[in-house]
Amino acid sequence: MEKKRMKSGEAPDPDKPMRSGFTTGACATAVAKGATQLLLTGHIPAQAVVSLPAGFDHSFELIEQGMMTDGTATCATIKDAGDDPDATHLAKIIAHVSWRDEPGVELDGGIGVGRVTKPGLPVPVGEAAINPVPRRMITEAVTQVLAEYGAARGVRVVISVPDGEEIAKKTLNARLGILGGISILGTRGVVVPFSTSAYKASVVQAISVAQASGCEHIVLTTGGSSEKYAMKMMPELPEEAFIQMGDFVGFAIKHGKRLGMKRISLVGMPGKFAKVAQGVMMVHSKSAPVDFGFLASVARETGAGDELAQAIEEANTATQVADMMTEAGYLPYFEKLCLYACQHCLEHAGGGVTVEVVLVTMKGMELGRAEISELEHNNWSKES
């Protein structure tokens, strides 16, 4: 019986175990190894066993094995991402392996594998977007096969993904300067569903590209909608400056500061930013509850009476509170909330950067904004 797979945007069921999958890098290693074996022996391999950095071996099923008229060996496999909502799930990964006169392994990307056009990535400009760990995995696996059969010559390995250019449209590759297809990725060979480490790695990469592009001001958003609104608010900034941090507010701010950003703007909605105003730097729905008592105290600070404050304490969501304050006309509430968020963000970063927070509705209407610099942070710390 086929297991139901998670869809993009769908929350996992906490009562059901999640199925892991395999990275594009692991799949590329498998097909490169299989095609090399075919080139050397003439025998068609049904599987290729790959030693994964995660610490175990996995046998990948190979398809479409064969020899082309020019003497190139080819193998393919279908990527299985498990229950992770990965854009590359079920993508066909192909390797073409041919002889070369020089010893060793020459690796390149073919159709559907992106080409790096901007600095700041772990792969130099001009090369195929095959990240360092997959490069090493592919090279080592192919080298082992060459040594096993005593090959006197080296080989050229080309990794292709037929639908890669179309798949890449669902990713941030174009913004990162990776054009023409997907990236061949993976540090462990395994895709862990809803992996926080994978998302953090994407944030690090995006900030690195922003830095390499000369950005000193980045804009962090919690998702696609808030990013779209942020881009309309700040059209003067290049696309590279806008980074989807997800729930990892504190992590993104610290990394931005570490890479020398002078100004960090955060644009988001009341549900998550109410938590930031409380001092919560990881705003996943399960990380910490919204403190409605805190929101009520902020409302009182900005002129709300006891009846409204009591209603806030009994509210169900921060968005509901935002609606209540908007209807009551207490707009300074949102500026105060943004100020608290700024203060906690700057404190988390350890100072040394200007932080701006902009609060928007789900439809993109600005509710309030505030910013704070090092000097203001020091004054606030003394008063706290």
Automatic annotation (TrEMBL):
Compositionally biased spans, kind Basic and acidic residues: 1-18
UniProt pathway annotation: Cofactor biosynthesis; adenosylcobalamin biosynthesis; cob(II)yrinate a,c-diamide from sirohydrochlorin (anaerobic route): step 6/10
Protein's gene: cbiD
Family label: Belongs to the CbiD family.
Its EC number(s): 2.1.1.195
A Gene Ontology biological process term: methylation
Organism encoding this protein: Paenibacillus silvae
Molecular function terms, GO-annotated: cobalt-precorrin-5B C1-methyltransferase activity
Catalytic reaction annotation: Co-precorrin-5B + S-adenosyl-L-methionine = Co-precorrin-6A + S-adenosyl-L-homocysteine
Lineage of source species: Bacteria, Bacillati, Bacillota, Bacilli, Bacillales
The protein's name in its UniProt record: Cobalt-precorrin-5B C(1)-methyltransferase
Superkingdom of origin: Bacteria
InterPro entries reported for this sequence: CbiD (IPR002748), CbiD_sf (IPR036074)
